[in-house]
Amino acid sequence: MFDTMTFTKIIGGFCGAFLVYLLGGWAAESIYHVGGKGHSEGEERATGYVIEVAEAEPAEEEEEVDFATLMESADAGAGERVWSQCRACHQLDQGANAVGPYLYGVVGREIGAAEGYSAYSGALSEAADVWTPENLYNFLENPRGWAPGTSMGYSGLKDPEDRVNLIAFLDATDE
């Protein structure tokens, strides 16, 4: 089955493949190193091609939005549409807790004081005492940033108008 000619062909195939591998490495080395041949031993070789890029201009800073001005223009009707994002974990009916505590009368309520809800994380109590509109505004922007360690998994509302509209809606539910 294995004669001398078959064995010679197999060895020749491996040697040929190794030669192609070495030549490919040599070609890639000369293509991707700037300058290729002619560098002396002590000379440092730069790899790749340098792409010149213009200096980026600094991004304009976002102007700070005044909370009081936003609250004056808050729309509870628009806040009801934003409420749909909260509905998955919270209820509006007093005492109707779900995954999260009920939000009836949350504006002005002590933090961690929803009747019948005991799964509060200690992080909320450490952040503030009462759910003032300002505290809700900051919490809704980034819950984990405002109260690190909170069990609320929501990433937050980035639009300031959505936050104040939601606060106005929540505040109107207990009237």
TrEMBL record:
InterPro entries: Cyt_c-like_dom, Cyt_c-like_dom_sf, Cyt_c_1A/1B. GO terms for molecular function: electron transfer activity; heme binding; metal ion binding. Keywords: Electron transport, Heme, Iron, Metal-binding, Transport. The keyword Chaperone does not apply. Residues 74-174 form the Cytochrome c domain. Transmembrane segments: none annotated. This is Cytochrome c.
